[in-house]
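Field reference: sequence -> structure
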Amino acid sequence: MQILGVSLVTGENNCAVENNCFSNYISGSTYSANEDCEFLVVGISGQLRFNRFGVGTGDHLTIGGEEYSGSTQPETTLFVSAADEMSWHSNSDTQLGIGFEICILYSCPTTCSPGSGCLLATTTLTSTLSCQACPVGKHSGTTDGASAPLEAT
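Structure field:
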């Protein structure tokens, strides 16, 4: 079995992944000049949620063949699927932005019942997607019973 989520294929400096999220900054700092990173979606698909986005002139994030830069996140809704690649490049200029943190709002392979949501559980060697009852203080992000990641309220 494989680890599901996002994988850092190549990267340097501040590029990082955590389960279904990927970023180019360390909390409390900006990203570095001359960064080049490749991210790979593994075993999940879904809409991208931009938690943070602001990159300098000449720096760009490439998703689905489109380059994104500046301080405004893409206006269109973006989706990714398993095996999609995303890349990040920052040039040597000192004009740096706040960087990006993006998460994939994945869905379970089956529809979860109302009052539950999809949970990505990862261990050192494997990961699984399964429907889990929502704990107190969390919700599934939907009201129609559709599968959605569990989020803090």
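Note: The CA atoms of residues 119 and 152 lie 12 Å apart.
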